[in-house]
Specification:
This protein has about 750 residues and is of the alpha/beta class. Helices cover about 30% and strands about 15% of the residues. The chain is built from 23 helices and 21 strands. Helix 11 links the parallel strand 8 and strand 9. Helix 20 packs antiparallel against helix 22 and helix 21 runs parallel beside helix 22. The longest helix has about 35 residues. It is globular, with a radius of gyration of 33 Å. It starts with a helix and ends with a helix. GO terms for molecular function: glucuronosyl-N-acetylglucosaminyl-proteoglycan 4-alpha-N-acetylglucosaminyltransferase activity; metal ion binding; N-acetylglucosaminyl-proteoglycan 4-beta-glucuronosyltransferase activity. This is Exostosin GT47 domain-containing protein.
C-alpha cells in the first residue's frame, strides 16, 4: 500500500510539471507575438550577455540583418535563384564538350571590345593574359571557351567602373548560347547596403570566375573562386615572397596583427567592430579606423577618436613583415585584399569570413596554409594561434610562399590557373592530381599531357624517394655538312659512345644538305639515330620532345663540342643528384646595367654564373616537352628567326620552374667556348652581332616572364681529390687533370 501511494504521488508530480512547462512556454510565445505586433524589438541575445560589456558591437538589429532589410534564408535563396537561374549547373549539364574535342583542343577566344567600351586596368590585364597564353585563338570557330570583351569585374552600380546594359549586349552575341562555354570574371558584385552576389545581368550557363564567392552559391566543379586583387597587382611576374629560406626562429615579433577599416554600420561591421577586444598592444596588434569615406564623422561613435589615434601609431608594412599570423576578416564582401598581402608576406592568414569559398578551392588544400576561424568565436582566436606549434608555424609559412609564387603573384598566374582548372575538368582523364597542384613547383608548369604519373617529373623524385635512371641519351645538334672523317662531330661520337651510361645517340640533322648514309658514320657500341630535321629547320627544334628519347637524362651537345669520356661520366653522376636542374660545363652570366636600365649578358670567366650553355649539358627530358608546349610561339619564333638564344631560353625556363641556378662541373682548363688561335674566320657565335642578339634576347625573355628568373651561383662541383696533391692513380677521373 505504501509503495502504491508513492507511485501515485510521483505520477501526479510529473503531470503537474508537464502542465506547467506546456502552459508556461505557450504564454511566453503568446507574449512574444503580442510584443512583436506592438512594434517592439525582441532581444535576440541571451539574457546573460549584457551588451554594456561589449560597447564596440553594432546594434542588435544590424547584427541580425547585416545592415539591410531583414532577409530569411529562404528569401536569400529565392533572390539567388532569380539572379542565377542555372544554379544547378555542372560541367555535364551546362558545358558543350564537343567544342573541345576537335583538332584544336582547348582554345580560348576573347570577344573584341566594342568601340567606346570602358575597360578597367584590371580587366585589361586579364584580357592580355588570355591573349598571350598558349590557349588563345583569334578564330571563334576553334574555341572551346569564350571570354567576354565587356568589363564585368565591377558590378557595383555605384562604381564608376560599372558597365550598364550588359544583359542586352550579351544576348546579341551569336555565340552567347545562354552563356554555355563562357567564363565570366568578376571581383565586385552587389551594392550598398546588402552587397549581394547580383551581377546585374543573367549569367545563364556561364562559368563564374568570381571573387568573394559564397559557399551557398558556389557551384562545385563548375564555378572557379578567384582571389580579390587590386588594380596595382602586376600583370606578370610579381614580387617574390618575403620568407627567406630556413628562417629561424619561425615566429616573429608579433603573434597576431590586423590593421584596416572599421565599418560602423552595414554588412561586415559586426566582425570588424569587435576586433579591438583582442588587441593588447604587445604581441597582438588589432587596429581599426573609422576614418574613411566622405561622411565618416557624421556616423562616428565614441570609440572612433581613440581608435584613429592608436591606428596611426603602427606602420602597416612593419607589422606585416614582423607578424606570425595575420587576421583576414571579411569586409563588405567575403574576400579581402589582406588575403594576398598576407600570403606574400609569409604571415599566416587567420580567416574570419564565414561562408567564403576560398580561391581555387577545387585544387588547393588550404588547410596547409591558412587557419580558418569563425566570426562568432573571435575571442578564441588568440588562444588558437598560441597553441600552434613551431614546426607547424614554419610549415604553414612555407606553404604560403609556395602558393603565392605558383598561383597568386600576378594577374597572369591567376588567369592561367583559372583556365587550367577548367581545362582539367574538360579533359578529366589527363588532369593534374591534388599533389601536383599543392607541391613545388605548382600545377601551372606540370603539363598532364606529358604524363599523369608523378615519377615522370624530375622535381618529384625527392618526395617520392626515387632516383633517376642509370642511362642517358645524347642529342647532337648538327648544322654542318659531313665532308671529312676528321670533323669534330666524328670524334665527339666516339667519346660519348664510350661512356658506360650512354643508351643511344641521336643526331638532329639540321644541315641544308641531306644526312650522309649510315655507312659514313663510325661504328659505335650504342644505337645511332639520325633525325632529318631539314623540313623544319629551326634552332629551337633541338628541344623538340623527340619520341626516340627513351631515357630520363638528356645530354645536349653541339657538333663541335670537345669533351672527354670521363668528363661526360662525371657530369652525369652530378646530374643524378640534381635531376631537376641543368648540369654542364660552359657558364655564362647576366647582370643589371643601372645606367641603361636593362639586363646585360656576359661571357667573361668569373667566379659567378647564372647560365650553363646547352652545347654541353645534362637535363631532364621533360624540359623538352615544357619548352615546346609551355613557352609561347613568339619566343620560339624569335629563337628561330635569329638562329640564336635557344640555350638562354632553356635556362630561363628551367630556373623559372626550380627557382634555382644551374650547376657547373669541373672541366679541363683549356676547354673554352672560344675560337682557337689558328682560326682565320671568326665563328658565327663569336661575332659582335651574335653577342648583341643574345643581350636583346635576355631582355625579351625577362619581359615575357615578368621578372628575371635566372639565379646567380658560385658553386662548382669537382670530383673527389680533384687538383689535390696526391697520386693520380688514386683519382677516379684522372683524365680531367692529365689533359
Amino acid at each position: 500500500m505504501q509503495a502504491r501511494k508513492k507511485y501515485v504521488l510521483l505520477g501526479l508530480c510529473t503531470c503537474c510539471w508537464l502542465l506547467l512547462f506546456y502552459w508556461g512556454g505557450l504564454q511566453e510565445r503568446l507574449l512574444a507575438l503580442l510584443t512583436r505586433r506592438r512594434g517592439e524589438v525582441v532581444r535576440p541575445w541571451p539574457d546573460w550577455l549584457d551588451r554594456a560589456l561589449l560597447p564596440g558591437y553594432a546594434e542588435n538589429a544590424e547584427l541580425q540583418n547585416g545592415g539591410g532589410p531583414g532577409e530569411s534564408p529562404r528569401q536569400r535563396r529565392q533572390a539567388w535563384a532569380s539572379i542565377y537561374k542555372n544554379s544547378h549547373c555542372r560541367m555535364d549539364t551546362c558545358f558543350d564538350f564537343g567544342r573541345c574535342r576537335g583538332r584544336d583542343g582547348f582554345r580560348v577566344y576573347v570577344y573584341p571590345p566594342e568601340k567606346g567600351d570602358r575597360v578597367s586596368e584590371s580587366y585589361r590585364k586579364i584580357l592580355a593574359s588570355v591573349a598571350e597564353s598558349r590557349y588563345y585563338t583569334s578564330d571563334p570557330r576553334e574555341a572551346c571557351l569564350f571570354v567576354l570583351g565587356i568589363d564585368t569585374l565591377d558590378r557595383d552600380q555605384l562604381s564608376t567602373q560599372f558597365v550598364p546594359n550588359v544583359d542586352e549586349r550579351i544576348r546579341g552575341y551569336p555565340l552567347w548560347n545562354d552563356g554555355r562555354n563562357h567564363v565570366i570574371f568578376n571581383l565586385y558584385s552587389g551594392t550598398w547596403p546588402n552587397y549581394t552576389e547580383d551581377l546585374g545581368f543573367n549569367v545563364g550557363q556561364a562559368i563564374l570566375a568570381k571573387a568573394s564567392l559564397n559557399t551557398e552559391h558556389f557551384r562545385p566543379g563548375f564555378d572557379v573562386s578567384i582571389p580579390l586583387f587590386s588594380k596595382d597587382h602586376p600583370q606578370k611576374g610579381g614580387e617574390r615572397g618575403w620568407l627567406l629560406r630556413n628562417t629561424v626562429p619561425p615566429r616573429r615579433k608579433y603573434l597576431l596583427m590586423f590593421k584596416g577599416k572599421r565599418y560602423l554600420t552595414g554588412i561586415g561591421s559586426d566582425t570588424r567592430n569587435a576586433l579591438h577586444h583582442i588587441h593588447n598592444g604587445k604581441d597582438i596588434v588589432s587596429l581599426t579606423t573609422c576614418k574613411h569615406g566622405k561622411d565618416w564623422e557624421k556616423h562616428k561613435d565614441a570609440r572612433c577618436d581613440h581608435d584613429n589615434q592608436e591606428y596611426e601609431r603602427f606602420d602597416y608594412q612593419e607589422l606585416l613583415h614582423n607578424s606570425t599570423f595575420c587576421l583576414v576578416p571579411r569586409g563588405r564582401r567575403l574576400g579581402s585584399f589582406r588575403f594576398l598581402e598576407s600570403l606574400q608576406a609569409a604571415c599566416i592568414p587567420v580567416l574570419l569570413s564565414n561562408g567564403w569559398e576560398l580561391p581555387f578551392s577545387d585544387v588547393i588544400q588550404w588547410n596547409q596554409a591558412v587557419i580558418e576561424g569563425d566570426e562568432r568565436l573571435l575571442l578564441q582566436v588568440p588562444s588558437t594561434v598560441r597553441a600552434v606549434g613551431v614546426d607547424r608555424v614554419l610549415a604553414l609559412r612555407q606553404r604560403t610562399q609556395m602558393l603565392w609564387e605558383a598561383y597568386f603573384s600576378s594577374v597572369d598566374k591567376i588567369v592561367l590557373t583559372t583556365l587550367e582548372i577548367i581545362k582539367d575538368r574538360v579533359y578529366a582523364h589527363i588532369s593534374r592530381n591534388k599533389f601536383m597542384w599543392n607541391a613545388l613547383p605548382g600545377g601551372l608548369v606540370v603539363l598532364p599531357e606529358y604524363s599523369t604519373h608523378l615519377a615522370h617529373y624530375p622535381f618529384y623524385y625527392l618526395n617520392l624517394g626515387i632516383s633517376p635512371g642509370q642511362e642517358f641519351t645524347a642529342v647532337i645538334h648538327a648544322v654542318s655538312p659531313l665532308v671529312s672523317q676528321s670533323q669534330p662531330i666524328m670524334k665527339l661520337l666516339q667519346v660519348v659512345s664510350k661512356s658506360k651510361y650512354c643508351s643511344q645517340i641521336i643526331i638532329l640533322w639540321n644541315s641544308e644538305k641531306p644526312p650522309p648514309h649510315r655507312s659514313k658514320w663510325p661504328p659505335m657500341p650504342v644505337p645511332l639515330v639520325v633525325t632529318d630535321g631539314r623540313r623544319k629547320v629551326s634552332t629551337s627544334s633541338r628541344f623538340l620532345p623527340h619520341v626516340t628519347i627513351e631515357t630520363e637524362a638528356v645530354l645536349s651537345l653541339d657538333e663541335d663540342t670537345v669533351l672527354l669520356t670521363s668528363e661526360v661520366n662525371f657530369a652525369f653522376h652530378v646530374w643524378q643528384s640534381f635531376p631537376e636542374r641543368i648540369v654542364g660545363y660552359p657558364p655564362r652570366s647576366h647582370f643589371w646595367d643601372p645606367v641603361k636600365k636593362i639586363w646585360g649578358y656576359t661571357s667573361k670567366w668569373t667566379n659567378e654564373y647564372s647560365i650553363v650553355l646547352t652545347g654541353a649539358a645534362f637535363y631532364h627530358r621533360y624540359y623538352h616537352y615544357l619548352f615546346s608546349h609551355y613557352l609561347p610561339p613568339s619566343l620560339r619564333a624569335l629563337v628561330d628567326r635569329t638562329s640564336n638564344c635557344e640555350d638562354i631560353l632553356m635556362n630561363f625556363l628551367v630556373s623559372s620552374v626550380t627557382h634555382l641556378p644551374p650547376i657547373k662541373v669541373a672541366q679541363r682548363k683549356q676547354y673554352k667556348d672560344m675560337p682557337g688561335p689558328q682560326s682565320t674566320n671568326m665563328a658565327p657565335w663569336a661575332t659582335p652581332e651574335h653577342f648583341n642578339q643574345r643581350q636583346d634576347c635576355v631582355n625579351t625573355f625577362a619581359s615575357w616572364f615578368g621578372y628575371m628568373p635566372l639565379v646567380h651561383s658560385q658553386l662548382r662541383l669537382d670530383p673527389v681529390l680533384f687538383k689535390d696533391h696526391v697520386s693520380v692513380l688514386r683519382k677516379k677521373y684522372k683524365d680531367l687533370e692529365r689533359a
